[in-house]
Specification:
It is built from eight helices and four strands; from the N terminus they run H-E-E-E-E-H-H-H-H-H-H-H. The protein is α+β, with helices and mostly antiparallel strands. It folds into two domains: about 120 residues, Ubiquitin Conjugating Enzyme, CATH 3.10.110.10; about 110 residues, no CATH class. A hairpin with a 2-residue loop joins strand 2 and strand 3. Helix 5 runs antiparallel to helix 7. The radius of gyration is 21 Å and the shape is globular. The structure holds zinc ion.
Length: about 250
């Protein structure tokens, strides 16, 4: 029995009290999934929606260190509605999903907040043809907006410079803040960065930096300093550029 199995069973029992039509099983060894019908009733700004969806919740091997991922299995939600290419639901910007999950890493909270909010938003969209809480943060642009709000700047160069510190693991409170304020990190963007470091693995910041690059407009690449990229991401992009150059030579 793996170390987190007892914890998962306990959390599942708690989940079943509110959502009795979900079942816990093990698809492959060590690969826990929860599937079934999720009935919910939720109210936002006076609009109550009661509905049900077939869902599949996949627990990562290291659960509850990482949040689950979710698919809708009734073929009701179209692929172009806030989903990733593998058809898992985009419950929000990954960094935001991590932050919210880590603040209370239990299945019941995950389902009642992130999953029900998403399903409510879709059911609302189906009914009224618009989104209930404004657009869900989605894709590269949503991730950029998330960091824009958090760091109070939309300058892609500064966002990347701050993410580089997070992804490379080089945070030191007495170093100058990479935003260029002239202050040291501790007295500038440091506190919000430390909060992020507490809740998310480094790989996520790498992914987010990549998304910031995808969100950039053509003019933002003028005078762009590629040295601002996290080391690992820079290596990956250099490798891609080399492959492309080789390919063009062959053609
Ligand atoms: Zn700063």
């Amino acid at each position: 029995m793996s170390s987190n199995e007892a914890e998962i069973r306990r959390q599942f029992e708690e989940l079943s009290e509110t959502f009795p039509d979900l079942r816990l099983s093990e698809d492959k060894p060590g690969c826990r999934v929860i599937r079934g019908i999720l009935y919910f009733s939720a109210t936002f700004q006076g609009v109550t929606i009661a509905d049900s969806f077939s869902i599949l919740i996949m627990l990562p091997q290291d659960y509850p260190n990482s949040p689950p991922i979710v698919q809708e299995t009734g073929s009701r939600i179209p692929a172009d509605f806030h989903q990733y290419p593998d058809r898992t639901l985009c419950l929000g910007a990954p960094v935001e999903v991590w932050r919210r999950f880590k603040s209370d890493p239990r299945l019941i909270t995950f389902v009642e907040t992130l999953v029900v909010e998403y399903l409510y938003a879709y059911a609302y969209f189906e009914k009224f043809n618009k989104m209930p809480f404004g657009e869900l943060p989605h894709g590269a642009q949503g991730i950029r907006e998330y960091y824009h709000e958090l760091f109070q700047t939309n300058d892609a160069h500064i966002l990347l410079a701050l993410l580089k510190v997070l992804a490379d693991g080089t945070y030191r409170g007495h170093h100058p803040c990479p935003c260029g304020s002239g202050k040291i990190l501790r007295k500038c963007h440091g506190p919000s960065m430390l909060e992020l470091l507490k809740n998310q693995p480094k790989e996520l910041f790498l992914k987010d930096a990549e998304n910031i690059i995808y969100s950039m407009e053509r003019n933002e690449f003028e005078n762009f300093d590629w040295g601002l990229l996290p080391k690992k991401l820079k290596r990956e992009l250099d490798e891609m550029a080399r492959e492309r150059a080789n390919h063009e030579k062959c053609a």
